[in-house]
Description:
The structure is a homohexamer. By secondary structure, chain A is an alpha+beta fold. In chain A, 30% of the residues lie in helices and 27% in strands.
Amino acid sequence: MNSAPFARPSGRDPSALRQIQFEPGFSKHAEGSCLVSFGDTRVLCTASIEDKVPPFLRGTNRGWVTAEYGMLPRSTHSRMDREASRGKQSGRTHEIQRLIGRSLRMATDLGYLGERQIKIDCDVIQADGGTRTAAISGAWVALYLAGQGLVESGVLKSHPVVTSLAAISCGIWHGVPLLDLDYLEDSDCDADANFVITQSGDLIEVQLTAEKQAIGQETMMSLLALARAGVATIIGEQFKACGIAGLALPVRANPS
Amino acid sequence: MNSAPFARPSGRDPSALRQIQFEPGFSKHAEGSCLVSFGDTRVLCTASIEDKVPPFLRGTNRGWVTAEYGMLPRSTHSRMDREASRGKQSGRTHEIQRLIGRSLRMATDLGYLGERQIKIDCDVIQADGGTRTAAISGAWVALYLAGQGLVESGVLKSHPVVTSLAAISCGIWHGVPLLDLDYLEDSDCDADANFVITQSGDLIEVQLTAEKQAIGQETMMSLLALARAGVATIIGEQFKACGIAGLALPVRANPS
Amino acid sequence: MNSAPFARPSGRDPSALRQIQFEPGFSKHAEGSCLVSFGDTRVLCTASIEDKVPPFLRGTNRGWVTAEYGMLPRSTHSRMDREASRGKQSGRTHEIQRLIGRSLRMATDLGYLGERQIKIDCDVIQADGGTRTAAISGAWVALYLAGQGLVESGVLKSHPVVTSLAAISCGIWHGVPLLDLDYLEDSDCDADANFVITQSGDLIEVQLTAEKQAIGQETMMSLLALARAGVATIIGEQFKACGIAGLALPVRANPS
Amino acid sequence: MNSAPFARPSGRDPSALRQIQFEPGFSKHAEGSCLVSFGDTRVLCTASIEDKVPPFLRGTNRGWVTAEYGMLPRSTHSRMDREASRGKQSGRTHEIQRLIGRSLRMATDLGYLGERQIKIDCDVIQADGGTRTAAISGAWVALYLAGQGLVESGVLKSHPVVTSLAAISCGIWHGVPLLDLDYLEDSDCDADANFVITQSGDLIEVQLTAEKQAIGQETMMSLLALARAGVATIIGEQFKACGIAGLALPVRANPS
Amino acid sequence: MNSAPFARPSGRDPSALRQIQFEPGFSKHAEGSCLVSFGDTRVLCTASIEDKVPPFLRGTNRGWVTAEYGMLPRSTHSRMDREASRGKQSGRTHEIQRLIGRSLRMATDLGYLGERQIKIDCDVIQADGGTRTAAISGAWVALYLAGQGLVESGVLKSHPVVTSLAAISCGIWHGVPLLDLDYLEDSDCDADANFVITQSGDLIEVQLTAEKQAIGQETMMSLLALARAGVATIIGEQFKACGIAGLALPVRANPS
Amino acid sequence: MNSAPFARPSGRDPSALRQIQFEPGFSKHAEGSCLVSFGDTRVLCTASIEDKVPPFLRGTNRGWVTAEYGMLPRSTHSRMDREASRGKQSGRTHEIQRLIGRSLRMATDLGYLGERQIKIDCDVIQADGGTRTAAISGAWVALYLAGQGLVESGVLKSHPVVTSLAAISCGIWHGVPLLDLDYLEDSDCDADANFVITQSGDLIEVQLTAEKQAIGQETMMSLLALARAGVATIIGEQFKACGIAGLALPVRANPS
């Protein structure tokens, strides 16, 4: 690169998020729902509560949170085949929905939830990079709202969601660490990483992948620093969308 | 029924449509798109233009229009299994997407379109009855806008969409013919019917099904009359969404 | 068309059925069976009684009638892929078997049937147009014979099949309404329609599709008139095949 | 067993075939076809000629013969699931269709056939034991008739079917070797075997399976003797159905 | 062939087996296991005991033995597609695993086994001809060792495996009967046959297939003689691997 | 935990690897192969060279490396269903094989490889924790040996594998960072992480997952330090298995 001032394709500052927006209650039928936008990436997240748990949990008095992910065929620049029509989900879909499910289970007191399953559906309406991190962040809102309903209807006394978390992507683009890559940046980066981080800055999931070259420990540290700052902002937006007043989830009276 | 004044569950007049709305250009990537709402039923329709036709049309210089249909798992009152996850599409899905495709091919001059395929995706974001008729009506808008793009970019001289059409459901509910059933009405009707009708009132598709009892010819005629009136209104809304100024599609100079 | 006298490809009069034939008891194992021929179209219909109903009916004391449809790979002019080998049924197959099942449920007193399921299999041995309407007509015979067995063996006191019905196709061919299209006529028609009609002339199912051009209400009425006349004849043949003596199904003593 | 005179369930003599019947030309569309009956077992066999060979033969100037097998769902005593609906063929189906294909390839001069494929479909209309051997025997007739068509239409000068063969089952039932087991006998035998044998008595395929106990070499020899006699009779019937005048296939002028 | 002394590709004597080796206990987790080598053909066989039987055996107090077979994608000369990735098992796989299961059920006293299922997995690590016969022979060892565990842990008093058996392939190669074909020999033979034979020389399964020409009864007899001799040797090796001291399975006190 | 001296279940020191072993050339047919053992975890890795690349690379003169992963059904403590039999691969399988493929592509000069594809198969023979990291480490050896063959046969002048890398798992167990978890440790850890690291200590892939609680940045750093040390040792073993003499891959003359 020459000495021209650095400019990322989106024109954003390296540490700037896109416009982040959560629209809670987007779906009329779901127990919890949210349309999340990270810039032009839009994902509809719904949470459905079922009274049946997977076989391995029957009789244990414990609950479960699981997730499914999909992209509408024309959410992307060129149309993708519909997975329902091809008859199977891609490896990428499997990978992402497993990630979403693991992350949200870490946010939930599954023992307190009781023998219930919350199924999260994350459907990408429009894709412009970062769909999996937008999905996790939106899914947390849908999950929280569904849990809120369990409390408001008297099924549970305390809220089963006990940890606040959000997810964001980072990447190295032309040697510079950037926060929240859009599609153009993502398709031309040296390495990218997805972080799921709690409000206290601890790590739930890290998925780092070198795309063009291996990266050193220092570089990884700067990605992590960007991600932590981004997550703090996103959690603020989640709280607003959920109507959580304070700076943190309310302390629970010991529910168990 | 007793002599109390008749009231359909939705409170609407028997011949009243729900609030009909078309939001053109909802999707950033698709060549044509539209979010259509018939009351609480919302369907995202996109049109994708491809330069490849199905094998049976290769070398014929003719085009094709086809459609796929899907429902988000929690578009419905209780969550449905995701078809991509089950690995196959239901019979109902097959039936509906075939209906959409047939209808839109009748709206299009496939010979003039040339060796191109337009794929319509209709994805139900929220379901409250009448998803297939909303989908056809919205898909016409997405198709028209995609065709408009072919004209504006100079690929075609005239518009390949040559017939205006829309679809609506009707039904017999407690003996009374009703227009545009919502979910509550639909799940308790004696018979229902879906009509695809042109602006001139002619029939493209009729699908009539007795649910509780067979119906006579007269009754069918009253359903058809309701449908024709409804379609006229819907076509007006489609024209507004597409920016079509007059009362009918412009007359084409003979394109072939 | 010029002024030459009109002649449909089959040489039949516009309102003439093909040779209609029902061979009851064609299958040794099934509780009810029938090989139905509409001209060269031949469909083997069997009815199998099972003591198990689908999950949504368990414990309701109600029965169910469902149908599956298939074509032998070389029932057609050129060989089709075997659906069992491709691993999925086509959209057309789904559409047809749903139609058959819906129609036959309307013929049956499902509450009186009790917690039993009757599965109808319609397998096309040879296809020459109109397989779905032949299948419905033949399936009614198989269903009736299976129900007869329940009465004769003392399981039920009255016959669970309470409505007589048959199905027939019509179409507009070179502007002329024709009854009972064969393959040649069907593949070159302007519009076609399938009707399922009761003995009293009421409508159970209508599936009308414009193939080349939309049709007006008058035209639809003439198709319906043809269909009603055809169905009356077919029901006469069904009664002969089932050994039903009178002109209508016997009046039931109130079975519930 | 006691000293009561031996009687097999079918009442036949141990070395007696069931009524064997071939109805050539049963199907209007196929290049060759035959409805074969071995007693109550009825199999519809069709041969379809295609100008395309499997990938591994392209450009080799050699042809191929392959087979598919299926059972109608209610061909059996109790209804089986439809394979097309389950989405996969059973292991038994795979095993049988491979056997049919291998056997018929041995009857055919594949080099002389040229780059053509003959697909055999064997669909069991009614099952009462011995469906695979009936299928092979009937498939030979369908194949021969299809080959005859190639000669009559001048595509080939000599007949591509160069070996006459048929198949039959045998079994040990209560210690006694029986020819041509029906369902009752087959489901209660000690061991059974299927033989595909040429007119000269040589072996194409042997599939012997001990069901209740292992069998000695002598016993196997008596089964083989029964089978050879049975095959001779069946080949006679095949010749009649195909209109082959002499006692053997005509000697070919060296076709290659 | 000229008068040069006959030499099979492997250089072995026509009646010579390859190096046969059984490594019992190859797998740490399975109840019984064995890595079997017939020359360069290597198959890992494991036996897994489950307390659940297939539906048709529930409540009968009888057990079941079943088998699955697979080939590692690069066990063969050129890489094969992975069946798990293609989403279905080939016809050949189905055929082989059914053969293995049937054979081993004949070795087992299923009534004495009780309501347990033993699942045999045969996975080909390296293929050089004769994988199915190596698999059956190795599976017998895995099955025997699993049964031994049931006795040693006191679950059963007597051993549920009551018949010793092994399998071997033979073939006609350039007119000469050969024992234990390797890949080179197998791919160029006139006919081949697989035999499953008991220690007493009786037949459990015979699968004979003419590849290039039909074979006479005499020839079949010479193949059978080769096979019997080979099986006797293999059973000796199986006994060594299982630590069976005598020349035959110990006589059981009447276990039922 | 009390003050008793810390002991991990395996008895190893926290920073101790299990016994690591690479057996190159394990498979007779593959272009490169290796049986890798990390303690009781054993994975067979093969590399198959094909002259065909995926469609998106045709005509680009670039190559590709991809991977498939599978577990033998009884490689695990209790038997798993066979994926080929279930008809689909699990999400976990998809996730792992994508990880292996991405990692090995980073080791390879795909432009220099030319229009060739190297398919890596990793099949778990026995599982005791860490199968994916053992698979990546073994796959590198198989890949390297396959590349060596391309050089030795003169197809390529320089070696296409240009980066040495290996993979290892770490985890937090009862608060203590441990290297190379076995199954017992893995199933009871607070968090685990898989690292793919180059010889120079840079990161190719990081997959960190909190299982019981989120972890801080410091903790992540200690896991990374353990992993880097482990990888250095493993790369030493890989070099020995591949016969690489020096401490690093030889410097390439500029191959492009």
